[in-house]
């Protein structure tokens, strides 16, 4: 590390359990963030600030004016440009140590394997069920640790998944709800700060995983309700009948679910 | 020499907490039981750095004044 890095990362290095070795590990780590929106924004900013050396961003959308209420990595002047370009620019300006790799596309059954392949940890910052199930299945099938999260209205939830070791998203929810059964952010609204609360928890989980510190949010779904201002923990465990990580998995290849859900453009 | 000093680090003029950060990085390069000599300014540096080192499980084996600074010998802990 050079003098500038020692100063930039001094508050990390000071921490017992991090030190110079932990910081070097962060600098050598690769994290993929799927969705450069509300959740992805704090995740990307905190990981970049902490010195995670390679950050991948996946998003096929452009910045919309209605995104700015919660997607704090995008600014007013960015409206209309691809989210991955906008986010990459902010990360570069925050910390030039970080190499940003952009994937200007959505994840599909056909491309997700190739996209996640080179990363140490995957962050689900998407806004729809088809993507969430696809990310879960891909991470389980290819053995990638990942953080799930979702926010809607005044509520949020998150869990960390270590494939083969802890409960996966499908252990909790067998399949996506029928299209239209659950309103999307654009229909139901979401309080902007929810993305900060939940996304920041995801970022902390990534850093803990990369540094090998503490207890990860595994086998516990953390549920946040802003109105009563309460965090709850729902204990979960691996489901032997889970269709993807159970004893007799029926999902052995990836499928796309109908993509309706949160079309945030309108 | 009273101690077998493996590394020396002059932290005169280096402010908190960078002086501690640099000490910590230097200690990472040593084996447990080996000694590091640091030069610290009086005041905040002397107040904070030795205390932080002790909290991380290292041992302060010698402190002696050296003009307006102090010469501190640290033995790397095992953790």
Layout of helices and strands:
The complex is a heterodimer of chains A (266) and B (79).
Chain A: H1 3-8, H2 10-13, H3 19-27, E1 30-34, H4 40-50, E2 54-58, H5 83-94, E3 99-103, H6 112-116, E4 121-124, H7 129-141, E5 146-152, E6 155-161, H8 169-172, H9 185-188, H10 192-211, E7 220-225, E8 230-235
Helix pairs in contact in A: 4-5, 4-10
Chain B: E1 5-10, H1 18-28, E2 35-41, H2 44-55, E3 59-66, E4 69-75
Parallel strand pairs in B: 1-2
Antiparallel strand pairs in B: 2-4, 3-4
Structure, explained:
The complex is a heterodimer of chains A (266) and B (79). Chain A is α/β, with parallel strands linked by helices and 266 residues long. Chain A has a single domain (3-235), classed as NAD(P)-binding Rossmann-like Domain (Rossmann fold, 3-Layer(aba) Sandwich), CATH 3.40.50. Chain A is 33% helix and 17% strand. Chain A starts with a helix and ends in a 31-residue tail after the last strand. By secondary structure, chain B is of the alpha+beta class. Chain B has one domain: Translation Initiation Factor IF3. Chain B has a four-stranded mixed sheet with strand order 1-2-4-3, covered by helices on one side. Chain B is globular and about 30 Å long. The chains are: A alpha/beta (266), B alpha+beta (79). Chain A binds chain B through residues 1, 6-7, 10-11, 13-14, 16, 19-21, and chain B through 17-18, 20-22, 24-25, 28, 52, 55-56.
Which radius of gyration of chain B do the C-alpha atoms yield?
Answer: 11 Å
What count of domains describes the coordinates of chain B?
A: 1
Q: What can be said about the biggest beta sheet of chain B?
A: 4 strands, mixed
Per DSSP, the total helix count of chain A is 10
CATH topology descriptor of chain A: Rossmann fold
Structural class of chain B: alpha+beta
Strand content of chain B: 35-45%
Strand order of the largest sheet of chain A: 3-2-1-4-5-6-7-8
Characterize the overall form of chain B.
globular
Helicity range of chain A: 25-40%
Number of helices of chain B: 2
What is Rg of chain A?
18 Å
CATH architecture of chain A: 3-Layer(aba) Sandwich
- Characterize the overall form of chain A: globular
Residue share in helix of chain B: 25-40%
CATH level-four homologous superfamily name of chain B: TusA-like domain
Work out the count of structural domains of chain A. Answer: 1
């Amino acid at each position: 590390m050079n003098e500038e890095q020692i100063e930039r990362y001094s508050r990390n290095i000071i921490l017992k359990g991090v030190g110079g070795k932990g910081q070097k590990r962060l600098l050598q780590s690769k994290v993929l963030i799927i969705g450069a929106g509300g959740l992805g924004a704090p995740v990307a900013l905190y990981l970049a600030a902490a010195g995670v050396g390679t950050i991948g961003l996946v998003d096929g959308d452009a910045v919309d004016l209605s995104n700015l209420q919660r997607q704090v990595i995008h600014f007013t002047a960015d409206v209309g440009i691809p989210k991955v370009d906008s986010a990459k620019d902010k990360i570069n300006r925050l910390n030039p140590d970080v190499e940003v790799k952009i994937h200007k596309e959505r994840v599909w059954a056909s491309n997700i394997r190739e996209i996640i392949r080179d990363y140490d940890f995957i962050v689900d910052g998407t806004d729809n069920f088809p993507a969430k199930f696809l990310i879960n299945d891909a991470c389980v099938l290819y053995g990638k640790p990942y953080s799930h999260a979702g926010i809607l209205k005044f509520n949020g939830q998150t869990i960390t998944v270590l494939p083969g070791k802890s409960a996966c998203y499908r252990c909790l929810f067998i399949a996506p709800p029928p299209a239209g059964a659950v309103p999307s952010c654009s229909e139901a609204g979401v309080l902007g700060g929810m993305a900060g609360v939940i996304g920041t928890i995801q970022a902390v989980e990534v850093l803990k995983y990369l540094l090998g510190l503490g207890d990860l949010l595994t086998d516990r779904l953390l549920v946040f309700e802003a109105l009563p201002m309460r965090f709850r923990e729902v204990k979960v465990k691996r489901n032997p009948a889970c269709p993807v990580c159970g004893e007799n998995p029926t999902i052995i290849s990836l499928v796309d679910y109908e993509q309706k859900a949160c079309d945030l453009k309108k | 020499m009273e101690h077998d000093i493996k590394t020396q680090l002059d932290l005169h003029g280096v402010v908190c907490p960078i002086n501690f950060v640099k000490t910590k990085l230097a200690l990472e390069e040593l084996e447990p039981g080996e000694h590091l000599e640091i030069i610290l300014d009086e005041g905040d540096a002397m107040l904070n750095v030795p205390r932080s080192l002790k909290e991380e499980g290292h041992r302060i084996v010698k402190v002696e004044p050296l003009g307006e600074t102090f010469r501190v010998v640290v033995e790397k802990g095992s953790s």
